[in-house]
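Mods, move this if it's the wrong board.
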Amino acid sequence: MADGPAAGLGLVEQVEQSGTLSIYHLLSATRADLLRRLGRSDEAALAYRRALALAPTDAERRYLSKRLAETSVARERTGRRPAAPLAHRLPQVIRGHPTKRK
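Not the wrong board. Structure tokens:
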């Protein structure tokens, strides 16, 4: 964060491109937070939803749900349209991830 959220997002994107942490919920949560800080609410909401789908514990899901709700409120204030439904935008691997709640 010393170089700002845009620089941090660039580093996160490099890690994402490697694919090694593609199902790690904290990578998506980090991406979401950086996008939120940059004012990119639609993208942040999508990343929070992805992290939420991957989160292994109830406590983490509660925290991520709260952050997602805050992002949604911010998005409503700016008048931006909500992101497309999650199931159509996430890779197939996440839909079948073992921590996904049914």
